[in-house]
Each structure stands twice: as C-alpha cells, then as structure tokens.
Amino acid sequence: PREEVAYVTCTYRETCIDQPDFLATVDLNPRSPYYGQVVHRLPMPNLKDELHSSGWSTGCTCFDNTAPKRNKLILPGLISSRIYVVDVGSQCRAPKLCKMIEPVDVFWKCNKGYLCVVHSLPNGDVLISNMGDPAGNGKGGFIVLDGETFNLKGNWENECEAPPTGYDFWYQPRFNVLISSAGLVPKRAGWGFNPDDLKKGVFGRRLNVWNLACRTLTQCFDLGEDSLPLSVKFLHNPDAAEGYVSCALSGNVFRFYKCEANNWVVEEVIHIPPKEVTGWIMPKMPAFTVDLIISRDDRYLYLSNWWHGDIRQYELSKTCKPRLVGQVFVGGSILRGGPVTVCRDEELKCQPDPLVIKCRRVYGGPSKLQLSLDGKRLYVTNSFYSTWDKQFYPTMVKEGSVMLQIDVDTEKGGLCVNKNFLVDFGKEPNGPCLAHDIRFASGDSTS
C-alpha cells in the first residue's frame, strides 16, 4: 500500500529552545486536506533526549509469510540513553507513549550508553545498537528488549567481544549473520567535528561480522583509518548473501558478500571524491554519506551526502559495479553564493544553486532517507546530529529542518525534487526543531 502516515523523530537539543523532543505524525495522503503537514505531536516526558533513530518492535522475517503488526515503535535517546516505546497501533494518527526505560537501568544492567539503531530480531526480541559506555567512551555492541513486555534483558553479545565503537547494523537470518558498523567516540563527537581528531581513533574504521545465533564476533574488516563506516544494509532478497556499507569520511561504499569458504569478503565499489575548497573547516571537503538505502526490489541503491548536499541513485544490475543513474542537490555546504568556494571538483563543473520550495529556502544537507514500498518516492530529512547541525548548518538550526520528497524514475533511473511537498519543521508551535528518522505505518524499505 501507498504510505499515508510517516512518523518522524524531532529534537530540540542545541536549538536553545527548552522543549522536549517529540514524535511527529506527518500526513502523506495527497488527497488529504492536511497533506504534507504535521497532524500530531507526541512530546517525550524529558528534555534533551536527542531522538535519533527509531525502529519497529516487529519486522518482516525470512521464516514465514505472515504480515507483521507494526503497532509499537521504539525510540532510543542518542544522548540520554533513555528508551521510549510508543503505541502507534491503537490510533495510527495519534500515537501514545506506553513504556519508558530509564538510562540508569541501561547503565547498570548493560554498562552501555548512546543508543542508536533499532531492529527486531527473528525470535521477536528487539535489538538496539550503541556507540559508547555511560561515560561516553567508545564501546560498541547491543542491548536486548523483550519483544512482548519490552523489559530490558541485558547485553546481546559477550562482554569480551564488544567492539571499540558501534553504530548501525543489519542481519540476514538465512545465513546466520549480523553485520555492524563502527560509528565514533561519543564524548569526542559531542564537541563537534574537529579535524584534529583525525588519526586519533575517534572515528571508527571497522566492519564487524557476527554469528547471529551464537552472538559471537567472527570477522572484522579494517576499512581504512577514519573511514567512519555508518550505514549498513543487506539486499532485501533473503537468499542474497551480500550488502553494502557506506563510509562517511572516506566517501567510499564497500560491498560485503559471502564467499565459498563460508567467510565474508569486502570490496570497494563506489568512491565519491573530495572537493578542494576554501572557506571551510578543511582544505578538502570529503563526501559525508550519512545514510544508505536499497529499494525493496534490490534494483537501486541511494546515498545521502550531507556535506556536499546531493542524493545519489545507483543501479544494481551488477551488484559489484553500482552505476550512478540519478543525482539531485537539496542543500549542502558548496552552494553557489555561500561562504565555501570550490577550487577543484572532479565531478561538477559549477557549484549547485540553493533549493527553494514553496518560497522556503532549504538549509542543511540530506541526511536520513526513507523509500516508499513501490520505490517511487524517496523522503529525506536534513538533520544529522544536533551538535554537528549547529556547527555546519547554524541557519538550519535557527530556522528548523525540513522533510522533502524526491520523485524517483524507477525505469531508467533519475531523481527530481517534488516542488509540491514540503514539511517545514521551522513552523512548529514550540519553535523550530530538527527532524531526523522517518518510518511509515504501512511498512518501509528499512525494516
């Protein structure tokens, strides 16, 4: 079915507005008089959680054909390490909070903090990745919630096998594998991006391969110093033992796949070159690929490039050689007339123009993506992480972020901004806020 409602995580952290984060319900039905508007807001009971990612308590598994009931949405706080369970099944347009797990429980029971990405496991439990320990030091791994009661069970992996950092993950039950990315050290990233942190172990470099059943670490791949692997996705085909990971700071995308020896292998398949610039924090601006998403038919891969400002579409008929077939700029740091001048660019002949939709100038760069089930509509928000938002896009923090719709050519490839759709989070009743993760009540391409 076509998506009619989206749930979007919104934060007020770093905006100088003393209001709690909230879950926004956005009307996506073109026939509705409220199309493109926030029709409901569910405020959290606390301040400065930094709602970042979200995930369903039940997802599609590879073992049966029963339709999952997406009636609970899990919202972890990236900064607070608090976990909210939201009931979206009783009234899909008016979600309500039904459970809360306090950070002290996460700290004491799991010695974990800075919670990131949520996926439901094949056995029905809920798995949440983390970036650090309670003090903000780097520490990867996962915590587990009971899939029915949502009580905190404890750590997923063995204590001795926790990686140095963590962020995203994805699993493939038919091959008994879970693959996770590295992320970065929270207490250093919390001060903003500092070029002096390069080559000091602040930005992760590992891709981790886990035995899903035994919960043990079986392989680690070094993707390069300060490569910062973030987004991990398997192909949707449950018989396909391959996927991709995007590295934010190196501009590389690696394909990982299972070889005949029952081991996993990685190979670089995409490289986005940096741009030589003046007026920026460094002389070279790397591609900062925040999100990677794959269409449900496994035909296309999409990347959001937060610093450069473009969304890219790659065709996957040859999974080892993704082919760029679509590109559109929706903001970024290299816009014409801005403070940054591009001196040398291997891809563009001129700097892109600013984007204006419905008389609203769009600031910031493309961050989180979500794709409709038919693959024809790609939705994007432009907040990455509030501290870095404030550093790189202070005007966006002041005026609020947006949610855009990109129309997708699913036949030949191609991307185009839909000028009739704009969710302006700068017009919220409590003031401008920062919008991040997107989920559809009818199902989405990342669950």
Automatic annotation (TrEMBL):
E.C. number(s) listed in UniProt: 1.8.3.4
GO cellular component, one term: nucleus
Pfam families linked: SBP56
Catalytic activity: methanethiol + O2 + H2O = hydrogen sulfide + formaldehyde + H2O2 + H(+)
Enzyme class (EC, first level): oxidoreductase
Annotated signal sequence range: none
InterPro entries xref list: Se-bd
GO biological process terms on file: protein transport
Domain of life: Eukaryota
A GO molecular-function annotation: methanethiol oxidase activity
Alphabetized UniProt keyword annotations: Acetylation, Cytoplasm, Membrane, Nucleus, Oxidoreductase, Protein transport, Selenium, Transport
Membrane topology term: Peripheral membrane protein
Pathway: Organosulfur degradation
Subcellular location: Nucleus; Cytoplasm, Cytosol; Membrane
UniProt family annotation: Belongs to the selenium-binding protein family.
Physiological role: Catalyzes the oxidation of methanethiol, an organosulfur compound known to be produced in substantial amounts by gut bacteria. Selenium-binding protein which may be involved in the sensing of reactive xenobiotics in the cytoplasm. May be involved in intra-Golgi protein transport.
Protein name: Methanethiol oxidase
